[in-house]
Amino acid sequence: MQIECRERLLRWLTPASWCVLMMLLLLALGVKFQQGLSIETNILALLPPTEQDPVIEHASEQFNQALAQRHLILVGAKQLPQAIKAADEVVEKLALIKGFSRLDYRFDNKRQQQSLAPYLTYKHQLLSSDTRAGLTSGGADFIHSTLQMMYSPLVPVSSTLLENDPLLLFYRFALGLSQGVENISLLNGVLVAKHQGKQYVMINAVLSGSPFSIQLQSDLVKPLEHALATVRSDHPEVEILSVGVVRYANEAIKSAAKEVTTIGVGSLLGVVILLLWVFRSPLPLLASLLAIGSGFIAAFTVCQWVFGSVHLLTLVFGASLIGISIDYSFHFFADRLGGGSSWTGKIAIRRIFSGISLGVVTSCLGYAGLCFAPFPGMQQMALFSTVGLLAAFITVVSLFPYLAARPAFKQGQSIRLQWADRYATCLSWSPVKVVLLLVLLGGVSLFGMVQLSVNDDIRLLQAASPSLRAEEQRVMTILERDLSNQFLLVEGDTVEQLLQREERLQLRLIELQQRGELERFDAISRQLPSQLRQRNNVALIQQHLLADPALLATYTQTLGLDATVINQFTAHYQTPPQQFLKLEDWLASAAADPWRHLWLGKTERGYASVVALYGGQQQPLFALEQTTDKVTLVDKVTDISNLLGDYRQRVAVLVTGSYLLIYLLLCYRYGFLKAVRVMLPPVLAVLVALGSLGWMGQALNIFHLLALLLVLGIGVDYTLFLEEGIEHRDSTMLAIILSALTTLLSFGLLALSNTPAVHAFGITVLMGISICLLLAPMLCGRVNSAGNKTIACS
Amino acid sequence: MPRLYIKQLSCYLSLFACLLALQVRADVFEHPVVDSSKAPALEAVVSRLAAATLVRSQFRQAKTMRILQRPLVSQGLMIYQQDLGLYWQVSTPFPSVLMINNQRIVQRNGDEVVTITAADNPAVFGFAQVFFQLLSSDVDKLSTQFEIYFCYCDNPINAEVSNQRQWQIGLLPRDLQLRKAISQVVLTGVEDIEIITLSDHAGDKTVIQFLQRKIGGDELSAEELEHFAD
Fold first, then answer.
1. How far apart are CA A208 and CA A100, in angstroms?
2. How far apart are CA A664 and CA A667, in angstroms?
3. Global ipTM
4. For the whole model, what pTM was predicted?
């Protein structure tokens, strides 16, 4: 039955079918290439949606994308003219760069008038929130405070102002528009932030596409750096800061490319030398590379088609997981090594078929298990490595019998087998020494584990050079912003309902501000009052200012103001307003420029907008969300860090469960005590890995635990092979050493990665597999002292 | 006859030119200061003003506006302390209190206290900073925001102390935005500063006159220090 199955499969798996498969894959890849390949570097894209509600998830995604497309440049100098001169040059150069869709820099008089223009038509129905509060508390007091303003040195009253706005109502509204924005002021027609005696001119740019697009990055990043460097060298006294997601994304790609060339080339070189040395022939190497390469191409193509893009981390992890398929090649060529002159590839593939097909099925099942983890990233990795392993397996089975049809010419590799055997013998310590070593390792590790801390902060997992982080931090300090990613998502059935909801929300946010639980917020309704509010404003003026004619009479008399001016003013309030400042007009005007990203527009069930929060405390905001209808607090970073913590715990349970399950299986096969012996190397590998993390002061995260799963899978294999292959320990040991060395070369070198997640994975595998390789021959497959194969260690 | 007429005319013309010249010389804005270190006369005034790290004075502020039938006059007390800031207490016609320093503005009207920082309202804060700098008369600082002009007036304001000459420092805002609100500022004084005049393009004018201005003197009393508290 099994043989029948094998034969049927082998009939299909021929070089011809392999060629057809590869052609199809390359064709599919070519089509994708035409459409533009995309490699995702945003670590958030690997993670599951944090919101249950797809509308909210989509809306917040939209907002995050809009934010990611913004790029900010600050040009700072002691003297403003100096800063402006340098900023002029920067803008001049940026204008030539492809990849920016907008550059906001000069705010000349025309631009300012444009920003106020949509309001001017409706100025009689616009009031600042302070004015509204003042009017409500009484017209007489309001008139009194307006008179006070007239005398205040802080109010630049002039004839022109009073003619158009005798009660300073619109003046106060216009001031309120810029209220609470940032410590930015408009000087000489540019936006200026002051910090520690320096003046920073602000250049706001918007990217023409996603900062993760490789095309956009290559259009933009280099020319931008070059432009800034030129201006920097022309004006050494000027400080230029540039922050935007695109720089992070580009740095991630660049560092990955560098790692691929260093770690990747390093591990490849190691594997190449190892294989050439062991097999004394380039064929096993080339064949293995062909298998891995086919696996990679298949995996990459399928992922591009299924997910639309491949994440950088998928590439790194997935490529390494496919690397395991080299073990299939080992089996094939090891068989050839000891095969003798009657050996043929077709017989060999049948001999190892059950072994390697069992291997590919169990590995694929193991990886497929990752599919059930609700991480899109893990699903991607699972698919990537499953497809890759299958393709590599197909390559081995269909091509290898033809690539290596005849036995190897050079005999005498037995020296390698002897060395492998000697390694095992050297480690066949006396039981006392072994127990001592185990106790020592376990003890030291347990001490390290006590010091082990946990950190699930997603930001720590993202690779960013300290200089880039420092630059961003500096910009945040200058602008007095914070790095929080919190915002409130507000929904409404209509635009009007949404604006009214925001206006009610504002009151509660102001309460938070007064209690010191929130520093600042930005909301569209601050800039654009709802129609209800506009109507209400007129009613307030009628009720509190115009109802009693004596009020305005006192005002004009005290000031000596011309009566016609005040008559013109009152004439506007004879009838309720018919026309309102509307969202469409506002959005179309320059007034909306700094705020447009807060408007999310139509959703599946109405309209949505964002209220951006700065310096907010978690608990009060959460309470606010709970008690406010149609308002959702979105805090991606905290949500994801919590989620990562949750999954770290789940994976910890999964790891423990797997170890227990395997132990139970081994008990069935070997009995309790022997099963302990087989399990000890991987278990100690886990302890040592965790313990060293503790000693090194590295905080534990989910990626360490995922690596422990791999250590278990591979480590148990070693002990099992040794137990089972006690008859031909030399070749088994050689296969294990080869497998361990290649694993160390492919995974272990990941410990050198700059991406903390990749590094965490690599360092865990590095330590775990080393321990397994050390302990496996000590504990398993030991030849008794009475055995016939005692080779002296000395 | 025509010759005589022409001679007469030329005479008038030259007289007119002289008058013009006189008038021009009286306008401080004909005397730009490019490098203050090369203007020893200005330097002397500047260092005298800069030495005033503690000032107590009465003030009278008059805002004259075309649209108003009479100037808006307010009077009160000011205390300037270099490190703490400016305390501006209006006693008539509407009592109110204002404190300005680099970090914040504190307005007190009766029990109501309003604090404004740059982040709260950049426009108001920015304007207040200009006012603060004008009142501090720190010309070095002002020169970052204003072009500086300087001259001595020809007629001393006080004939009895004719050896003391009246000086004027003219300030033109460098910032176009500010220039819309204030077209020019003139600081006038003999020894100490006496008058600050702010003008706008529409012809409106704010004149701040200092009376009984005392430089230095006693350290701030506990009560006075209270004015600068948050």
1. 5
2. 5
3. 0.81
4. 0.70
